[in-house]
Amino acid sequence: xxxxxxxxxxxxxxxxxxxxxxxxxxxxxxxxxxxxxxxxxxxxxxxxxxxxxxxxxxxxxxxxxxxxxxxxxxxxxxxxxxxxxxxxxxxxxxxxxxxxxxxxxxxxxxxxxxxxxxxxxxxxxxxxxxxxxxxxxxxxxxxxxxxxxxxxxxxxxxxxxxxxxxxxxxxxxxxxxxxxxxxxxxxxxxxxxxxxxxxxxxxxxxxxxxxxxxxxxxxxxxxxxxxxxxxxxxxxxxxxxxxxxxxxxxxxxxxxxxxxxxxxxxxxxxxxxxxxxxxxxxxxxxxxxxxxxxxxxxxxxxxxxxxxxxxxxxxxxxxxxxxxxxxxxxxxxxxxxxxxxxxxxxxxxxxxxxxxxxxxxxxxxxxxxxxxxxxxxxxxxxxxxxxxxxxxxxxxxxxxxxxxxxxxxxxxxxxxxxxxxxxxxxxxxxxxxxxxxxxxxxxxxxxxxxxxxxxxxxxxxxxxxxxxxxxxxxxxxxxxxxxxxxxxxxxxxxxxxxxxxxxxxxxxxxxxxxxxxxxxxxxxxxxxxxxxxxxxxxxxxxxxxxxxxxxxxxxxxxxxxxxxxxxxxxxxxxxxxxxxxxxxxxxxxxxxxxxxxxxxxxxxxxxxxxxxxxxx
Length: 616
Hints:
Elements: H1 2-30, E1 32-38, E2 42-44, E3 51-59, E4 63-68, E5 72-75, E6 80-83, E7 92-97, E8 104-108, E9 117-120, E10 134-136, E11 138-141, E12 145-150, E13 155-162, E14 172-175, E15 185-192, E16 199-202, E17 208-210, E18 213-215, E19 222-226, E20 237-242, E21 245-247, E22 250-251, E23 259-263, E24 265-270, E25 273-275, E26 278-279, E27 286-289, E28 293-297, E29 300-302, E30 305-306, E31 313-316, E32 319-323, E33 326-328, E34 331-336, E35 340-349, E36 352-354, E37 357-360, E38 364-371, E39 374-376, E40 379-383, E41 387-392, E42 397-399, E43 402-404, E44 407-408, E45 415-420, E46 425-429, E47 432-434, E48 437-440, E49 444-447, E50 457-461, E51 464-466, E52 469-472, E53 476-478, E54 487-489, E55 499-501, E56 504-507, E57 511-513, E58 519-520, H2 531-535, E59 538-539, E60 550-551, H3 574-585, H4 601-613
Parallel strand pairs: 1-3, 2-4, 3-5, 3-6, 4-7, 5-8, 6-9, 7-10, 8-11, 9-12, 10-13, 11-13, 12-14, 13-15, 14-16, 15-17, 15-18, 16-19, 17-20, 18-21, 19-23, 20-24, 21-25, 22-26, 23-27, 24-28, 25-29, 26-30, 27-31, 28-32, 29-33, 31-35, 32-35, 33-36, 34-37, 35-38, 36-39, 37-40, 38-41, 38-42, ...
């Protein structure tokens, strides 16, 4: 009875054992070992996966290795997949043809033991879109040296490279001759958490990186070296980075935490993001230099930091346009340019600089012209809270824009001039300066032409200085070491008049002229109507005979929100009536309240009507 009951159980166990054996055999049969030379066209498919490589596997003799979607390729220690020979005539080609639902995966055979490398050598076919090696929908996970291209390029699309283990070199390496026909095109390439950096490209021509991501890489995200040898020198090539993301990359021993780009190249960067990158040297987010006329457009630099110049970006191109970009919360606390530091001529168009920090030039430091930009709440430990304009030949200035709540501990709460070898006019036009602060020059400091040639000119036209704060020169401070022939001209051009309202300082609430040179300030609106009230806003030769005079006659009144408040104290009193009478008596145009060009009874009546109406 007991024996009969046991038989079904024994039978069941035999079937289970047979099933386990069959499953084991199936698994073993599906694992395909690969070694040696592949010299005929070969396809790896999911049925034979995983393919386990040992030693060096070479694809040569004109063969093409095609790897289809769903395949896993495992690398034993010290194994490599080599495409093409060292001799370009010994051709080979690799087509990695994954899909969005069936990717090709390259990884080490043993988990947690990085191994493996893929290298395209000069014999690999060159070309794109079917004319050469291609990587589509591939994943390289925890390999030692994921991908190297020497003397050839491949198209890379929708590919991920993650956790490459070699700390001595980037995960993806491209080494080319300086040939404009050898161009890399990478679309939606993502490189994450690689020990030696994300990607390096040397040489080649019209490279394009589109929608690529470089995140959490040590040794920087991207390095591009496009330097052309002196002989033979070729025309600059062009490189495009569009819609790329650089986040949390670091360059502990160099420049350009997110990316370092240099060489005889025209760089075009569009719609990119540089965020939380760091470098021990220049360019926390981006370091870029080149001999071509380059551009950066619609790109954000957020929370990057540098050990030297350019927390967000360092630029040293021939001519550079930065347009519609944002620089926010970047830091260069020990040096220059929290948002941007530049050694080249840069034109900033409609950019925003906010809460950046540096020792010199909290927002920007260098040879820059800012057009319709916003500088808000930037900070400099020394000078130039928003901008420190420096360099040679006086290149730099401002056209339009807003400077609000910027701070410098020493000089130039908004702008500090540190221009040397000045041979042209430095111009600030149509800007608004409000609530900036510094010890010297709440809005603008460093006016001197120091280190430069005689005849340095600073031309300020149509600007508004409102509620700035300093110890000397609430709005503007002119240095004691101003060179001979230095000229500061505040006089209007047409209807464009400078205005000074509500600025505060212990000495010279509007302007402190500590130089021996006269300043042209006729036609300026000081927020008051009388010479005596204007004099109280200015520190100059009338206070100290060794100083130059600020020539402030005639006085403009176009900036007065309440023209009947003649003494500018914010209240309408008998003293305003007395000042009006005095101006009328001496024929001063400031008493022409009806604007007809002559002083008559009607001006008295107009003043009386506005006085009775009160201030807005």
